[in-house]
Amino acid sequence: MFSKILIANRGEIACRVIETAKNMGIATVAVYSEVDRDALHVRMADEAVHIGPAAASQSYLDIEKIVAACKQTGAVAVHPGYGFLSENPAFAERLRQEGVYFIGPPVKCIEAMGDKITSKKIAAEAGVSTVPGHMGLIADAAEAAKIAKSIGYPVMIKASAGGGGKGMRIARSDADVKEAFERSKSEAAASFGDDRIFIEKYIEEPRHIEIQILADGQGNCIHLGERECSIQRRNQKVIEEAPSPFLDTLTREKMGAQAVALAKAVNYVSAGTVEFIVDRDRNFYFLEMNTRLQVEHPVTELVSGLDLVEEMIRIADGEALRWSQADVQLEGWAVEARIYAEDPYRNFLPSTGRLKRYRPPAAEASAHLVVRNDTGVDEGGEISPYYDPMVAKLVTWAPTRIDAVDGLAVALDQFEIDGIGNNIPFLSAVTQQQRFREGLLSTNYIADEFPDGFSGVALDDDTLLTLAALACRASFQLETRGFIEPTPLSSGHVIAERSVLIGDKRWDFSIPKSDESFVLMTDDGQPLLIEDGWQPGASLTTTEIDGRTLHVKMDRVTSGFRMRYRGADIIAKVVMPHVADLMRHMLKKTPPDMSQFLLCPMPGQVVRVDVVEGDIVEEGQPLAIVEAMKMENVLRAERRARVASLKALAGDVLAVDAVIMEFEAV
């Protein structure tokens, strides 16, 4: 077995590989850029080597620096993780030249499957179903439009060397093709150093379902079932699960057999994933093969009981597969939610900054529920603009799908992150949607269910009453313990009366005398028994109200609490009833009108400005492009106007809400 492994990656996947290597008794080496000097993966590894500045091109993508780190530390093998150099054949070949093992497939497999055009030709020759499209390279936008017409709209324009949702655009008309071609080509060049583009038919109401395979150097190959990856935003997976709620046994067997056939056709070795697009009638078509470990591999591990990182290491060391296809037994259901540093209330724009609070739910492993959090950060760490915005992968397993989804919902309730924007409210909202709970998924799910973006969740009246009661009790606890100034108490059998305001709703509570329990009485005489509950200084409370258990994030604000639960983010004000009577007469503050400005929606760099001062722009017209976390974001005009002045130029690095240009009415 290898004595020492270098992990040519960072963040969550580096930590994941280090954990398995340590369990196998293998020493580990981390590499890090300047901004990752204090990162979690650096602290977890036995050794760490600095490989350059923050920019990935000068650190994690620099092959010679990785090779030098291997020589410096004596690492005999390299695990590339995912992203960065994981599917770069030149990297695998360079390691081979230095006598360092690459924990992944042979160079020829990476070359064949890493190029989407070549891989589709090989798949077709191996009898794998493929999507209709143009497999040749495309010279320019005019040729792209001609090809798209021949295939028939809608079409998907893709970077040949693409991945992770980058360099991909849907075009539904000739007008769409030009911009989609240019943006895909630009993103591909920036992300992969390869701007080749191809076009294929876009499948309506598609599902993204992939098959995990394992192959050794002795010609053995098995599959470990499928993963459903249809919940996506901008072609980036958000929620994955295993198995798929859509496939039947026959379709699963056919997809598995074709995935194995493709792997054998290229003499594949190591872990790999064959991705398919599946239509409403369960027809499936080869999409691509990822010659690496997938981000979503934990759901397969939980249903199969295998450690895929360990299997990759053993295979790279020359071992034969320890299982045949008949040995593979998939049990239960696993669901994974990717937690991103992005603001769902601002169209999921990237968010950077320091993690002032990072407290994931406690790990759990029982016959009824498993909770697992794969992460590469901890409290006090910083999310930088230089790398992928994923913070963690929260995964749950249970015997049934609905139990796994419910377990995920509770774990999201318990996951505390502050200091950066994050998508936990959005993920929580999805777990409560009936369509998701019924497994009626497609890659259009987010666009269909959130056509106007995400603005939070409107909780039902019973849940709001429960949260109001919790806020009332918490406020009363502060009073009785002297944390806030006490208010006059009532007389008789009632200790106090309070009103709770959430938005335009109001609840009036009375607190009766009781030596044994805390009970609130609503204004209609309904008693609410509150057990456990919030404690001063706590940011998360687990409470039981009339037998209903809730996990609510709570922070003190003026006259009340900020409460976050199941995708809702609310302010509950707790006041005396007569104060509540007066508050309805108070004027609401109107936010300033910023419609005459184009603001930078996220920290990023201006790639291009498409207008000049004096131009008249129309609604929907592209105005500028801002790059953040390796993605190009096109900013468009919201209405017809004249560009009065430009405040930023291409190359400028801007903070969130920085003014890019100012408009005037026409």
TrEMBL record:
Transmembrane regions listed in the UniProt entry: none
Biotin carboxylation domain mapped to chain residues: 1-451
Key word Lipid metabolism present: yes
Keyword list, A-Z: ATP-binding, Biotin, Ligase, Lipid degradation, Lipid metabolism, Magnesium, Manganese, Metal-binding, Nucleotide-binding
Residue intervals of the Lipoyl-binding domain: 589-664
EC numbers for this chain: 6.4.1.3
InterPro entries attached to this UniProt entry: ATP-grasp (IPR011761), BC-like_N (IPR005481), Biotin_BS (IPR001882), Biotin_carboxylase_complex (IPR050856), Biotin_carboxylation_dom (IPR011764), Biotin_COase_C (IPR005482), Biotin_lipoyl (IPR000089), CPAse_ATP-bd (IPR005479)
Pfam families in the record: Biotin_carb_C (PF02785), Biotin_carb_N (PF00289), Biotin_lipoyl (PF00364), CPSase_L_D2 (PF02786), PCC_BT (PF18140)
PANTHER family: CARBOXYLASE:PYRUVATE/ACETYL-COA/PROPIONYL-COA CARBOXYLASE (PTHR18866), METHYLCROTONOYL-COA CARBOXYLASE SUBUNIT ALPHA, MITOCHONDRIAL-RELATED (PTHR18866:SF33)
Protein name: propionyl-CoA carboxylase
